[in-house]
Design a protein that fits this description.
This protein is of the alpha+beta class and 162 residues long. Strands 1, 2, 3, 4, 5, 6 and 7 form a seven-stranded antiparallel sheet that branches. The longest helix has 14 residues.
Length: 162
C-alpha cells in the first residue's frame, strides 16, 4: 500500500459516516450498472465489504469483469473507490462480519446458502472532502453563482493510490 497514514485517515473518516455504497459493475452487454449496497462497518484497510446473494446479477457481472467502482457520499465528503471485486463464502469471514443489516436480507439468516461476501480491493480512491460546515460551502456556491465566478476553497480533492 502506497497511501500515507493521512490519506487512509481521510478515507476512514468518510467511510465511518457512510451506510451505503453505490457499486458499479459492467453487465453482460458492457453497460455500467450501479446498485446501492449496505457497507459493512469495519476499519478501512484497503478493502470494502458487502453482503450479497451469490446468485445475484452483480455477482454474475463481477465474474466476467471484476473491475468495479464504489461511490460513497456523506457529510464528511465523497469517495470514488476503484478496485477489483471478488466473492467469498468463507464461513469464518461471514461470522466475523455478520450484522443485523445482513440478517434482514437473508430469509434463512446466517445459514442461508445465498449468503456471500463481496470484497472490493481498492487500487485508487478519488476523494473530495471539506472541513467546513455544509452551510458555509453552500454559501460559497451561491456567492460564485451570483458573481459569475467559481466557488473557492470548498474542499480538498486528491487521488489516493493503494
Amino acid at each position: 500500500m502506497t497511501a500515507t497514514a493521512e490519506e487512509l485517515q481521510t478515507v476512514s473518516d468518510v467511510l465511518d459516516k457512510a451506510r451505503i455504497g453505490l457499486l458499479t459493475t459492467v453487465d453482460a452487454e458492457k453497460h455500467l450498472v450501479s446498485r446501492p449496497l449496505a457497507l459493512i462497518d469495519r476499519p478501512f484497510d484497503g478493502d470494502v465489504w458487502f453482503f450479497v446473494a451469490k446468485d445475484s446479477h452483480k455477482v454474475h457481472d463481477i465474474e466476467t469483469t471484476p473491475e468495479v467502482n464504489v461511490a460513497v457520499d456523506t457529510s464528511k465528503g465523497w469517495l470514488s473507490i476503484s478496485g477489483t471485486a471478488s466473492l467469498t463464502q468463507d464461513s469464518a469471514k461471514i461470522d466475523e462480519l455478520w450484522n443485523t443489516g445482513a440478517e434482514a436480507w437473508f430469509d434463512q439468516g446466517r445459514d442461508d446458502p445465498q449468503v456471500s461476501l463481496l470484497r472490493v480491493e481498492a487500487y485508487t480512491i478519488e476523494s473530495w472532502t471539506s472541513t467546513e460546515p455544509k452551510a458555509i460551502t453552500l454559501f460559497k456556491y451561491a456567492k460564485a453563482a451570483a458573481t459569475g465566478g467559481h466557488p473557492k476553497n470548498v474542499g480538498e480533492n486528491e487521488t489516493i493510490s493503494l
